Amino acid sequence: MRRIAIYPGTFDPITNGHMDVIKRAKKLFDKVLVAVAISEEKRPMFDIQTRVKMAKAATCDMEGVEVEPFDGLLVNFSQQKEINVMIRGLRAVSDFEYELQMGYANASLWKELETVYLMPSLEHAFISSSVVRSIFKHGGNVNHLIPHVIKPYLVKSLTCM
User: Fold this and answer.
1) How far apart are the first and last CA of the chain?
2) Which residues lie below 8 Å from residue 65, measured CB to CB, with a gap of 6+?
3) 98-118 pLDDT, tens per residue?
4) Catalytic option among 51, 78, 124, 129
5) Structure confidence at residue 39 (pLDDT)
6) Looking at 81, 91, 137, 151, which residue is catalytic?
7) Angle at which helices 48-59 and 16-28 pack, to 10 degrees?
8) What pLDDT score was predicted for residue 157?
9) What is the pLDDT at residue 40?
10) What are the C-alpha distances in Å from 42 to residues 11, 38, 63, 99?
11) Is the entire prediction scored with pTM above 0.90?
12) 91 catalytic per annotation
């Protein structure tokens, strides 16, 4: 029996912190489905097609990692894909409180769904997509925060602003 997990997020953009969690998840699971949420309520910087392209580009050399977009409830998408294990990354205590609440909410909708919390390594613990976007928008260097294949997408976004 193959062990499969889903790793949902907005990935706006995908960061080295996300990549760290994906690599850790791959040690535990045969397949990891990176589920890119449309999340229009978050008003992402990148459209869903671009975020999926970035996630695919960042994970293209990782065997057993797939990327798909989704909209709506994660529980419904997980059921559709027949995946009952969800990966969530925890960087800080503030993440824990939110993620615990979301894990319980998801479990109340589908009792079969288990949430596995993974911490990124210490060097990536502070990285979030919003930190990357903020540093980049203010002219800072983000090369150490994102997979190298993501930089062209960020540069292109400046011309679209």
Assistant:
1) 47
2) 22, 26, 31, 32, 33, 34, 59
3) 999 999 999 999 999 999 999
4) 129
5) 85
6) 91
7) 60
8) 84
9) 80
10) 11, 9, 30, 17
11) yes
12) yes
Q: Which amino acid is at 143?
A: N
Q: Which residue, among 7, 31, 13, 37, has the nearest Cα to 99 in the 3D structure?
A: 7
Please list the ranges in the chain whose pLDDT falls under 50.
Answer: none
Asked whether 79 and 85 are in contact (CB, 8 A), the reply is no
Tokens found for residue 121: 């390594």
Contact 119, 89 (CB under 8 A): yes
List the domains of the chain with CATH numbers: 4-159 (3.40.50.620)
Q: Which one of 18, 24, 26, 133 is the catalytic residue?
A: 18
- Measured in residues, the chain has a length of 161
Q: What number of other Cβ atoms are within 10 A of residue 110's Cβ?
A: 15
Question: Is 43 among the residues known to form the active site?
Answer: no
Q: Directed axis angle between helix 74-81 and helix 93-109, to 10°?
A: 60
* 78 included as an active-site residue: no
DSSP states of 75-133: HHHHHHHT--EEEEE--SHHHHHHHHHHHHHHHHH-TT-EEEEEPPPGGGTT--HHHHH
For the record, the structure tokens of 51 come out as 């975020």
